[in-house]
Amino acid sequence: MAKEFSYLNFNRNKEYSYIGKSLKRTDILDKVTGRGKFTADLKFSNMLYGKLIRSTEAHARIIKIDTSEAEKLPGVRAIITAKDVPSIKYGLSPARYDETIFCIDKVRYYGDKIGAICAVDEETLYKALKLIKVEYEVLPAVFTPAEAAKEGAPQIFEEYPGNINTEIHLEFGDVEKAKKEAYYIRTDRLQGQRTVHGFIEPHCSIAYWEGKRVTIHSAHQSAHYLQHHIARIFNMKEGDVRVILPYIGAGFGGKLDVSGLDVAAVALSKITGQPVKMFFDLEEVWYNGRARHGMDMKYTTGVTKEGKILFVESEIILDGGAYTGLGVASSYYAGALLTVLYDFDNYRFDAYRYVTNLPPCGAQRGHGQPHPRYAFESHLDHIAEDLGIDPIDIRLLNARRANTVTPNGYEVKAYYLKEANEMARDVSGWKEKKGKLPKGRGIGVGNGGFVTGAGYCMYRTDLPHSIAMIKVYDDGTHAVVYTNAVDIGQGSDTVLTQMAAQAMGYPYEDITICTRDTDLSTLDFGAYASRQTLMAGWAVKRAGEDVKRKILAQAAEMLKVKEDGGYRFGKLTPEELECEEGIVYVKQEPAVNITFAEVARAYFVKHGVLIGRGYYHPGKLGGTHKGAAVGTSPAYSSATQIAEVEVDMETGLTKVVGTWDVHDSGFVVNPQLLHGQVHGAFSMGIGETIWEKVIFDEKGRVLNGNFAEYRLPTALDMPYVESLVVDTFEPNGPWGVKEVGEGATTPTLGCVANAVYDAIGVRISELPLTPEKIWRALKEAEGAKEKGGK
Amino acid sequence: MYLPDFEYFTPNSVEEACRLLSQYGSKAVAIAGGTDILVKMKKEVMAPEVLVSIGHLSELKKIEYVPGKGVVIGAGVTHNEVMNSKILHEKYLSVSEAAHQMANNQVRNLGTIGGNICNAVPSADMPPILIALDTTVKIVGAKGERTMPLENVFKGPNQTVLENDELITEFVIPDGNFTGSTYIKFGLRASGALAVVGVAASVQMEGDIVKDARIVLGAVSPVPVRAKEAENFLRGKKAGEELFAEAGVIASGECRPISDIRGSAEYRRDMVRVFTRRALLKAVNEGHV
Amino acid sequence: MAEFIVDKDGIKRYLVTITVNGIKYTKMVKANSLLVNFLREDLDLTGTKKACEQGDCGACTVLLDGKPVNSCMVLTISVDGREVTTVEGLASNGKLDILQEKFIEHSAPQCGYCAPGILMSAKALLMRNPNPTELEVREAIAGNLCRCTGYVHYVQAILDAAAANQERKDG
Ligand SMILES: Cc1cc2nc3c(=O)[nH]c(=O)nc-3n(C[C@H](O)[C@H](O)[C@H](O)COP(=O)(O)OP(=O)(O)OC[C@H]3O[C@@H](n4cnc5c(N)ncnc54)[C@H](O)[C@@H]3O)c2cc1C
Ligand code: FES
Ligand code: FES
Fold first, then answer.
1. Which of A581, B11, B24, B262 is the most exposed place for a label (fewest CB within 10 A)?
2. CA A652 to centroid of ligand 1, rounded, Å
3. B165 shares its domain with B267
């Protein structure tokens, strides 16, 4: 048998000039001086201000929209509704394009888009908005999957009978057979809540027309998808749509859908002939939705006596909200990646995504993962407890290993979850703490991970996933990297520039990056599925190497080695040369060298502009079953988190005291940025575990669409964090990279929930673990004990 | 969000402010730090046609100790000024600490103690501790002035006994016999969270006997309430954890909480029990912390 | 009392003089003008951000007479005659403030939407307390929500800036 090839400790002795280093962010000066422009900071002459007209009913037929009073208000420029715009359906999952620009006949949630209005200034706009009257015939509404599933429940869409939007039934291996072999079988059911992304910058979109072309500036995560969908919706050529993304105040999945703002800005600016800026007030971000689905998750797992998993059966019910968006993918993702984490052969996954009369759900950091991870990691802890096994030991036993294939067809190369568990265990003092902490204090572990880029484009196409180009200035003193990878804060501009510098052998300080503009830069699918470091990274690396190839060829013609130089006399070949940090030299005779700039200038004189090109396509991945494409990826990250918490046993208030967070993210291009991702992911994760939940009233109105009652963790809530990496190398990634951005959130919910369980001895089966829920659970446990005692 | 149009006056004195308020009647409202009123206007809960600024008036900005009278705090003093006041640190750190537990640093630089009282929301953080220290307020109106215990100022959520043309100008924490006091706020996040419950306690100890006590509960009734039965229960008894636990039980029976998105009535009631005990213990053991 | 003119529509416009980043601006504003909008729209100082508009997030933090406040909660007219510092006023003569330098060194901001607000809160902290503890730093920026960073690098950068300040003084 061939020896297993290990990608562990691969980078230990490697020293690169520009990668593996915490170089300064390319955008940092803009961000610390306030000079950097976000979409809302832009102004165009003659610009109008617009807002969406939103439904004030959760489910209703539109009888009449009376805009006459608003139109009379001086300064109002245009009011549009469904009749004024194309009626084409759109979305992000091609199988379920079900959203129209504005509601036709029917509204499906409180906040649904009925129309749009623009005026000369914000004040007029707000005043006019209040004058618009919509008459409804109210229909009965459903607000939970349970209500949606009831017989005779109101139907939200004709095309989704029973309100089922997506239904999945998959089986791999033979679950029934494994059931017979299992030593121990346990079932747990847990619930994850609906959250919001919580980025601070609300969406904003500005559009203007020049002849047949439209330009859109938007707070969006993908220039390409926005361009593609705008072109499709307005029946235009993609080339006639220019998308420019200014700085983006983070996205976490919430700025990936085409928002009503983008579409309305395009439509209104067409009608008025003026630039139109559409914007959300913060509360509207909640109505726009597209965040984490509420999920009801049931897991049944059978194990051997030692705790080896033999089979898993999972059934997940998703609250989808009113439209599909990315919901089909969310549903598949909810089940897809469990098999990556743990190595077992028999797996059944059933899922039902219901539409409800609430804002639509979609992708939020770790798309589809955090809730199922929370549920399964909790479930796994119970199995370990029942069998008397340490929670880390059961994870070590079941962790998938490198160079394996999952039962649902994913090829996993570098994968060091086991090592991550061991490292987290050792640095956290797990052995000294687990089972030994006083009541009210607890420690817990959770595993997670994610795809490093989706294997397939969201719509069917043969386009490459990423293209990069590098242009060197005429005199060789500067270079520009072109790619439409989107930096939403995670730092892709920096990392890609570092990669370009490394690949070219050219100083990082002399490179700028030109991104987020479909006219000026080159195709990339954008910021989602944690894809850019690997995918755009490949394209940039190849573009850099292309430049270098040309430089070395040119240099070979220019460099001469003296006879007495001890090497040899005569013409050099490019293979004998190397280029590093802007100097081209003879490998065997480094004293013989010339600057990159000189060579580049000579190249320019002879050939014209010096350009490097790079291309990336992941090729065909995955199995053949229905939905096999979701979850495919060139590489999978893994992570282990351990957290320690302190629970006030009287009030139920949880304080997270510390976390030890270990990631197997392949080669790390910029450690500081990687740790930044881990810190941010952890803070989002504890927020979602302890505080965050979107609350609605009986009309489907959001009750906490603000940062006062939807509580993100503050600086005072963040615990001590120790972020570490396992040194690994991913053969499918440029220089061995994998993702960290999304995967880092996936273990937290389970990890903190397990720590709380350890602290209080009672499992709360529904997120978030608010003080009141903990208080109630403790009281009930106390009550049960007393009853039992009597 | 936007603010509807209104007229704005910057009077030179409290007297002028009251005159303006009286002149414009129900159309006019005073604005101090604006942290309550501007939010309400943005949310369209109210739309005053006239705002009369009082936040800038220096006569409302003092904190001083007047022997024989007590600590006088001007209504226009901001929460951070309360929090950082040397006089309060010496006399009643508990008041500074209550201010510290409010909102966040930026809001504390704007919001005033007067605004916090006059806005009269049940969850407000300053009323409980001030009532626990028997604070009185001076009210000045177009027709004259009056003084009353702070406890009597509140009528209901967002309602006080103040007439339209009246302003609170100062708070007086009288020299009293309390030996210790504290305010504990229970919020759902370390910063920037409104109280689920807030409990203030002050005690007058003689040796280890509780001679007198005040327990004031916030966020669990339409107005801040004193747990008078619990106070009576404590009087003359020997301090101790068990006694205070019992007082907590009694206090939890005295509040009238509602259920809202921050917590159920049942939970709030039990939290009153917990925090009454904790507050009493702290007030006894640590003085005016 | 600010002088005013009455518009044709019967609305008053008040004459205010406000010093922003050391420069005196005299402008006509309506009473309902909020400082955040005055800075962003009237003065084009868009470094100050706007998000929640209710005092909860701190993105709009500026210094008013040296103290950090939420500019979304301040009426422009109430600032007449006073001094405002925004993120644009931190650097002087092309030289970055030590906080900015340390933010760069630590890659503290990610998306950066919260960064101007955090800088202003931190600036105010160091002006009043040159040698803060970690808890004091966390307190000072607790009114500035950041979804990207978990505040870890921000806290380190601010502590580092304080230390560098001390060194400079001592040195
Ligand atoms: C983000 C945020 C967080 C907050 N957190 C808290 C918190 O944790 N705890 C808490 O208790 N509050 C909190 N608040 C509410 C608010 O900050 C306080 O209530 C503050 O003290 C109000 O003072 P102000 O000067 O800003 O009031 P303003 O808004 O100026 O006035 C409020 C009301 O009081 C009236 N008024 C003001 N002063 C007087 C006076 N002297 N005489 C008569 N009437 C007067 C006004 O007419 C108005 O009706 C928070 C607010 C925000 C925006
Ligand atoms: S925008 Fe001012 S505090 Fe959020
Ligand atoms: S860096 Fe994105 S919100 Fe703070």
1. A581
2. 29
3. no
Question: Which residue's structure tokens are 């929301």?
Answer: B121
Going by the DSSP 8-state scheme, the letter that residue A438 receives in this structure is P
Query: What secondary structure letter does DSSP report for C26?
Result: E
Same structural domain for residues C131 and C82?
Answer: no
Q: Does the residue B2 lie in any domain?
A: no
Helix (H) or strand (E) holding C28: strand C23-30
Within the 95-114 window of chain B, which residues sit less than 8 Å (CB to CB) from chain C? 103-107, 109-110
Q: Which ligand sits closest to the CA of B105?
A: 1
- Whether the complex's predicted ipTM surpasses the cut of 0.90: yes
Q: What stretch of H or E contains B208?
A: none
Regarding whether C9 and C44 lie in a shared domain, the answer is: yes
Instruction: Give chain A's radius of gyration (CA, Å).
Output: 28
Instruction: Please tell me the total count of domains within chain B.
Output: 3
The yes-or-no verdict on residue C115 having pLDDT over 80 is yes
Q: Tokens representing B25?
A: 């009647």
Q: What is the pLDDT of residue C171?
A: 64
Ligand 3 pocket check for C114: Cβ under 6 Å: yes
Q: Hey, which of B40, B119, B126, B146 would you mutate to test ligand 1's pocket, going by the most ligand atoms within 8 Å of its Cβ?
A: B119
d(CA A525, nearest CA chain B) in Å: 34
Q: For the whole prediction, is pTM greater than 0.90?
A: yes
Q: What is the CATH number of domain A456-616?
A: 3.30.365.10
Boundary residue ending a domain (B124, B152, B174): B174
Say yes or no: CB of residue C60 within 6 Å of ligand 2: yes
Instruction: Say whether A714 and B274 touch across the interface (CB within 8 A).
Output: no
Of B2, B186, B264, which is closest to A126 when you measure between CB atoms?
Answer: B2
Binary contact (A200, C155; C-beta < 8 A): no
Looking at the structure, do residues B156 and B72 belong to the same domain, yes or no?
yes
Tell me the residue range of the domain where C128 lies.
Answer: 98-170
CB of A5 within 8 Å of a chain C CB? The answer is no
The ranges assigned to domains in chain A are: 456-616
The pLDDT tens digits of the residues spanning A486-544 come to: 999 999 999 999 999 999 999 999 999 999 999 999 999 999 999 999 999 999 999 99
CB of A254 closer than 8 Å to CB of A200: no
